[in-house]
Amino acid sequence: MLVRWSEAYANGELDALLFGKLLAGLANADPARVADTSALLESLSRAVALPRWNTALTSFIALAYFDTFGQLLASPQPPVAMIALQLEEDPRTAPAFADMPVMRPVKLTHRDPRGKHRLGR
To answer: What are φ and ψ of residue 109, in 5° steps?
Structure first.
């Protein structure tokens, strides 16, 4: 199944966002395959255009930090988060990480009269 999905993704027959989501789901379901998943992502980086690879990584990484409803998880999903940490060291993955709102520093810059914070960049 994974081989078929990978081939379909590499051939452009499977959407990059969907492929990243499927791959993250498999990694979370079987943590013993973390090394295999990392190796697969690396081999695909040479098989597809870099923007397409980063698109798949964006959805893959998102599942480490967000639930299916887009809510931030209390703690990252360990299997996918471990792979994400490895990927973060690769400069080619910068666009995928830049798309993650959780990765952007946000500082509280203003306190309104009621004592509530407003977010600022």
So the answer is: -115, -10
- CA dist 58 and 121 (Å) reads 22
Cβ-based neighbours of 17, under 8 Å, separated by 6 or more:
55, 56, 58, 59
pLDDT in tens, 26-60: 999 998 988 899 999 999 999 999 999 999 999 99
* pLDDT bucket at 121, cuts 50 / 70 / 90: very low
Domain ranges of the chain: 2-120
Please name the helix (run of DSSP H) or strand (run of DSSP E) that holds residue 9, with its range, or none: helix 2-10
Task: Give the 3-state secondary structure of residue 118.
Answer: strand
- The CA distances from residue 8 to 12, 68, 80, 108, in Å, are 6, 23, 22, 44
